[in-house]
């Protein structure tokens, strides 16, 4: 369990502050995470990494000369928001673009994808790569679905070394892809981890048993077996990795970088015993160990587990891996001399600017805030039930994440209403707050939904029924674009898309928005219940698909709750106006 904390909700914030204080010569804190506190070469690509907190030294511990330029840090086990990622990327940008690198988790994919769109819209060249090294999380035929675990370090290091040499953004991305393609990891777990303040671990493994192939959040692996001896475990790890070598690689004579990674509670002495056995088996296969790393590189709080990573080097990748680096948690080669980073004008907080809005849009903003209050109330009221549904085949945090999001969105909406913002700005700011505080895939999805609708209705016109329907349509397709979910995948999309279709059809018939929304909300409730008969095809629930049969998707249920709550906030008005009214 986690022993030392104050207020659990402040744990990540206080952890970052302490980390920066202890490593001030290397890193400095910026909104959303940390960047190098040393000067980087102007005109070079910046490598910005990130993910949820709780995995130290990933991700902040890997920021420094020769490694990452910045790390966006989400809440505990929750992806950073697009807003956080953009803030770190802009602070780290050296003039030649940014490569965003992260593990392949649904929330990270959504948030980093959104951040890339925003950065490019602001004129900053940006590419991204999702690391996919965990061989047990998907088959060879679906490698793009594999998780990113300890192999993150290989990709981050190679890309950063290429950037230090002055390679272009396209060349750095090519190096990162090559490193990802040639890196494989397999992990095991003996017990789960317990977050600060939690009474129970996120997952459990029966006493005397081991989860073979488990992920760093307790995602299921291949099977559960009795805990073996070190020699037997080494046989299993090496066998599975050698059955999944990259195309074109010949095992005998291959030069390999090996990482034996502890996940939190397995002691270094145990890792060394296991490595002794692993090294023998690799040498027997004719593998040349070009570099060996034994220690903690990607952890999971106090999770008792470990992973073995093999990076099958090309000549270029080996040189990049062995290039000097100096970060709080990973150092190699001679120390890199760099001047301290000076305070820049952009480091100071800028005064809040609220876009101009018409009187009718500000009046509509009052209605929007009433709707935010209503949807927040229904989510908070159903937090436990949403968590229960999610726990059937997921990690059970959907209710917690949604509550964090709606509270932040509600507070932001009220704040910007008081500043005189229009309806569009209120929704856009609520979207950023929701995504920022909720984290995870649900935070990103609701950020997309509210931001798209806010953009669609704008700050000048009173929201007309046709404009609202069109904005909801754009939001649905935006979620599918960024999240890659399709109808039938057992996600929120199985409610959002039908809701949008019915809303548009009813508006086209000439119904006022209040009635059209009500009809669409009724259809959404039925669609949410229908997801009980689907099997999840993406996300963390996919490996436990059969377990979820008979239970609706938590994201679909929460969406149906929200659109129904908003429906109650409409009051019918003359058909000629076809627009919403205040919450009664």
TrEMBL record:
Transmembrane regions listed in the UniProt entry: none
Superkingdom: Bacteria
Entry's Gene Ontology cellular component terms: cytosol
All copies of domain DhaL, residue ranges: 366-568
UniProt xrefs under SUPFAM superfamilies: DAK1/DegV-like, DhaL-like
The entry's keywords: ATP-binding, Kinase, Nucleotide-binding, Transferase
PROSITE patterns attached to this UniProt entry: DHAK, DHAL
Gene Ontology biological-process entries: glycerol catabolic process
A Pfam family the protein falls into: Dak2
Domain DhaK: 7-330
Gene3D superfamilies the UniProt entry points to: 1.25.40.340, Dihydroxyacetone kinase, domain 1 (3.40.50.10440), Dihydroxyacetone kinase, domain 2 (3.30.1180.20)
Gene Ontology MF terms: ATP binding; glycerone kinase activity
Family matches, as PANTHER family: TRIOKINASE/FMN CYCLASE, TRIOKINASE_FMN CYCLASE
Protein name: Dihydroxyacetone kinase family protein
